Amino acid sequence: MSFNQILIYLNGDDQSVLSTESNKIILAKKKMMSINQDHTLLQTNFESIEDLIKAEAIIRNQIFKIDEIAIIYNDIDLNMISYQYDYNHMKKNYNVLMNIIYFINKLIPLFNSKFSFVLSFEKDNHYKVHINNFRMSLIKYLESLKVDLVKSNIINIKRSD
User: Fold this and answer.
1) What is the DSSP annotation of the chain?
2) CATH of the domain at 10
3) pTM for the full predicted model
4) Could you tell me which residues are beta bridge partners of residue 118?
5) Domain that holds residue 67
6) pLDDT tens for residues 22-50?
7) Total structural domains in the chain?
């Protein structure tokens, strides 16, 4: 039996989340040059819900059950003060958050009975308020999802922040 892993690269890289013996589907903005293992790459900017719906259809065709979803959102380089007041940046950040939650909800029927989320997030930084909000909101959503699915799935949430 194979291990099926979905990797969502929102920003940055983290080789520690890669399982060497897994079928990998990677969602990223661009080709991940650092990954030299076999994988399927689905390119998206995470702002388009249509891209994520297409990705979900491809995942359904390639994977029967998902064992793990890893979300990588680190190495964020921002102008510390000015981005907090940049409306377009804030709008994009919260739109991506909403789309990721929607995408995970679409994948729930594919979750294996024992399922894991692996989160590789940037450490808390008071200058990166919207990144902190993104991280905390996603974690709270996953914790709620874990409670909601307790009768059908054993969900483990691993954090590397």
Assistant:
1) --EEEEEEEEES--GGG--TTEEEEEEESS--TT--S--EEEE--S--HHHHHHHHHHHHHH-SSEEEEEEEE------TTGGGG-HHHHHHHHHHHHHHHHHHHHHGGGEEEEEEEEEEEPPP-TT-HHHHHHHHHHHHHHHHHHHHTTTT-EEEEEE--
2) 3.40.50.720
3) 0.88
4) 70, 158
5) 3-159
6) 788 889 888 765 666 677 788 898 999 99
7) 1
